[in-house]
Amino acid sequence: MRSSGRRETYAMLVAAFLVIGVLTAHGDDAAQLYSETCSACHTVGQGDGAGPDLLASTRWPEQELRDAVERMKANVGELTDAQIDSLVALLKAPDLTDIESTLLPVTLESPKTKEARKGAAAMKHQAIQYLAFDVHQATSVASLRDESGSVVMRATVPTEAKALVRLVKSAGPRVQVAFEEGTQAQWLHDLLLPHAERVIVCTKRGASPVVNKNDELDADQLSADLYAGRLREVYHRGASVQTLKELVQNYVALVSDATRVMQRLKALYRGRAIAVKGSAVYRKGERKRWLDKLKGGARVRAASLFRQLDLLMELRAPAKSAMISEARRQPGWKVLRSIPYLGDVRVAELLAILITPHRFRTKRNLWPYAGLAVVTRSSSDQEFVDGKLRKKKRAPITRGLNRNHNPLLKAVLKGAANAATVRPGPLRDWYDASRKRGVRDELAKVSLARKIASIVLRLWKKGELWNPDKLMVQAT
Predict the structure, then answer these.
(1) pLDDT on residue 357
(2) For residue range 293-345, what is the model confidence (pLDDT) as tens digits?
(3) CB 405 within 8 A of CB 377
(4) Which residue, among 453, 444, 450, has the nearest Cα to 421 in the 3D structure?
(5) Which 3-state string (H, E, C) describes 433-475?
(6) How buried is 126 (Cβ within 10 angstroms: 0-12 exposed, 13-18 middle, 19+ buried)?
(7) Cβ atoms within 10 A of the Cβ of 98, count?
(8) What is the dihedral of CA 320, 322, 325, 331, to 10 degrees?
(9) Burial of 289 by CB count in 10 Å (0-12 exposed, 13-18 middle, 19+ buried)?
(10) Positive or negative torsion for Cα 75, 79, 85, 87
């Protein structure tokens, strides 16, 4: 449903084009444009169609009309000052209301327009169907509910594109689809999005388990939650950064695997009381010396781990290069790269994870996603004093940071905060000021990570580069 402001804006534009068509002041081009874009939904003085009647827009104040025409540039393209003046003059013309009882000219009523009007009206009143999938590797169990919430269909289909799309189309022209986050969630979201009114990828993390569980019960419960509006949606848009996301996952996996192999190597030596410190054990020039300290199967295992490490390090460099090259193509690269302690790798990871800053209305929406939101608990918060209810002067008990978060994003922000605390600069000064106020070291670092997250969100939204003089400005 359109908001009233947007409806008024559309109404103003359509009324202008209708008047142009009726008065033939601007030739047949405007009438043709009205016929193709507006007449299927709107009339002037003939009552509401699929869209509102436009007669009321003819009585707006002149400045309000001019502002509405200016706003229409975002929808119809650039309008010159002369065109804006012409539209405002037409809408304010005394004889404009003469068309109140006039039907649309025959030239504006093509068969195609009539069919479009019928289709739009039918679509408006079509009942919404609620379809939920319990998705598995081989099969997907579907549960469909109608507008009253009753289950009208259950089906099991192969987890294949053709079968899933056919099932969604069979549910009707207005269908909302939901399924849980998982390995195939992104593929399924992109597959079904063109064929459904809405596609929701949800998370059931933290939900109370039911006594009985099977695929059919899971699908029924999911469709019931979809119908009732109880689902927590997981963000799955951002096709423009899909390549970057894959490259970031590739690089992060290689780094993680190499770190795991390094830890296994050190554990192998420490398990035999052989002292091993630093990175000397990983150097190819000293490898023979370290292998000579082991015998039998341990030596074979260490040699295998060394070969794994060599291969991973060989793959790591080109993976990093490809990731950074793709990240440089993103519009937010220049802004984020200007922020201290956000290097090429961290910026690439931020771009792939956050996708767009407009996902988060304020910094307080970003902090929980990054695992930087403080969890508090309180009870018996109010009391009666002299017959008046008031809040108790007692601070809530903190329970650490939230656990449901994106671990890679948290690692990026914590890494930037830790780097800022050991190197001189504006962020280090901000951290030192927190410590002087009596804030504990670990809490000051968390506050600094939150500050960096706020700076990222603010600068990215506004398209501004880093300016240390604005560091103390409240970030939003």
Answers:
(1) 94
(2) 999 999 999 999 999 999 999 999 999 999 999 999 999 999 999 999 999 99
(3) no
(4) 444
(5) HHHHCCCCHHHHHHHHHHHHHHHHHHHHHHCCCCCHHHCCCCC
(6) middle
(7) 12
(8) -90
(9) exposed
(10) negative
